[in-house]
Amino acid sequence: MGQFVQFAINGLMSGAIYALIAVGIVSVYKATKVVNFAHGYLIMFGAYFYFTFAVVIPGFEGAPAWLASWQPAWMVEMRAGLSMFSPLGAVLDWVANLPRIVFGLLGAVVCNALLGLLIERSLMRPLMGQSVFAMIMVTVGLISILSGAASLIWTADAAFVPHIAPNTPLRFELFGTMIFLFGADIVNMVIALLIFGGIVAMVKFTKGGVAIRATAEDQSTAYSMGISVPKVFSRAWILASATGAVAGAILATRNGISPSLGLFGFSVLAIVLMGGLDSYVGVLIAAMSVGILEAMTQWKMGGEWAEIVPYVAVLVVIIFRPHGLFGQKEVERI
Amino acid sequence: MINGNLKASYGADERVLNNRNKQMFVYGCLLLLALFPLFADDYAILMACKMGILLIAVVGVNVLTGYTGLVSLGHGAFVAIGAYATVVLSNLFTALPEGVLPFVVVPCAVAISALVGIVVGLPSLRVKGLYLAVATLAASFIVNFLIEQELFAPWTGGVVGINTPVPNLLGWELDTKREMYGLITVLAVLTLLGTQNLFRTRVGRAFIAIRDRDYSAEILGISLLRYKLMSFAISAAFCGLSGALFAYFYARILPEQFELDLSLELVAALIVGGMGRTMGPVFGVFIVLIVPELIKISMGFATGGDLEMQRYTAPVQEIVFGLILVFFLLKEPLGINQITDRILRSANRWPFARG
What we know:
The complex is a heterodimer. Chain A is mainly alpha-helical. Chain A is built from 14 helices and two strands.
């Protein structure tokens, strides 16, 4: 039982990150009716931007020393009396890294948002009003462009990136078994869920969110009601790539940076379809259940089999519920 | 009257090559293909074989995406199934004489591929458009994953790949690339001719009706179940044939050769060439394979063989591949076939202005 809880918690933590990535795909779909096949590669760019701003730039000669490692006098004092592997030590390590973590996250979010805007302006806008097939295929072409560009720009091996939160190990007893968690994972989960909730609230309550929903409902009516549809499009892309940057940074701290991050986007795409393309609730539920299913598969069948769990799950769901668990059924007229 | 297009009989109008310019173009191409091995060097033969193998697979995708309107991003998996089935069956049927082995193995591989195609096509009855694209993508990931599994490694070789047999057609061993060129070219031309004629039959017209509006097609009495699955089967069978040739052509196959990149290459070639047109895949495959080669060669020239710069070649190739796809979608969505159509039309009406 204890092991079950351990794996369930692990699953929930990766499910939250799936949800954070999925929110980008759903937002773009809601606003523009385009499913972004290249979202995983946007995330990869986010991860690489985080690496650049948190590791590469602080490592330059001209960069101020506090950026790479912040060592105020009080911290050196506190550290002196600590034993190895104490929880406080991990927190202090994190505080020393704090400037570059913040710098890295800000840089990643800004750069990725600009990238999203660039993609929207140069590739999506010219296709406005054309067939959805063409738009989707453009995002497929974007996969090659982004993955080629990433390996062109970041040739160096990506080294260690700093964790976003203090990585203290936590142990506690539940149902008679030790549960073992990392502090950073919990904070990542909280960040992911907060951003997810924030975006859902934004779409629900703010003026910009209403514009997105109106555009999703009917583009030309939204236009005639004075909503600037092109602006909604670019906002959705910026939103998607900015959340993607945070997700990329989190993934980079968890699994390291590699070109295979892009493939991660496809499993999230499967999750999004499973939940229903236009339903935030459905996507959250799908992300969490796939996260847990993956963890269970990892537990029972080994780590390798976990990677196809989202794909099997989406195929099963699609056959029984073609529009996902909570997706809106499209009404077609002849 | 349209100049150069006069048809005196119904038969003349029904022909595949229904005017002189088309005839000249196609017969010229066939002649060129036949004479090609006489003057080409090994490198050109290698490229031509690669094109032929890819062409057969793209024709398969064309049947599904171009003619039936079902988008698939996972056709690389069918090529993989064809290739692995060929190798595995060749290793199993060792009792058969070598000369007849390919005649048993290749049809079996094609049939297995078609069967898997039907299974993968099942979601197409419930979903279409991008849902289907993701469903096929998911299926292809699963197939690739299974091939790489340690569990099946005794048969498939797992991640490290497996050596492939040399085809032996009734005692004629095709152990050089030049001999393989003959086989690949004949099969590629037959495939093209087969699809061209498929769309002059009842089945092909049903496919086109489904593409144009599936509900209307159903109302007209076309069974969606039957024809969508048939389209999947035919398309997967072509991909399986392409996979079989792939296995015979290379000395060793690896699972990573059939991953997402191949599926994207197939779709990109189709879009660049022109969807739903017989010659579309031909032009598309040509562009998709020749441009990266040109980049490799010109990068080699520009850097003077500098190894430090050579590693930039693959990313540049990847970027240009994506740019070509995007360029065609933005500027010429109907593909190169549209351009050649325009040229042919003006050639037909020459010396009058093209209408």
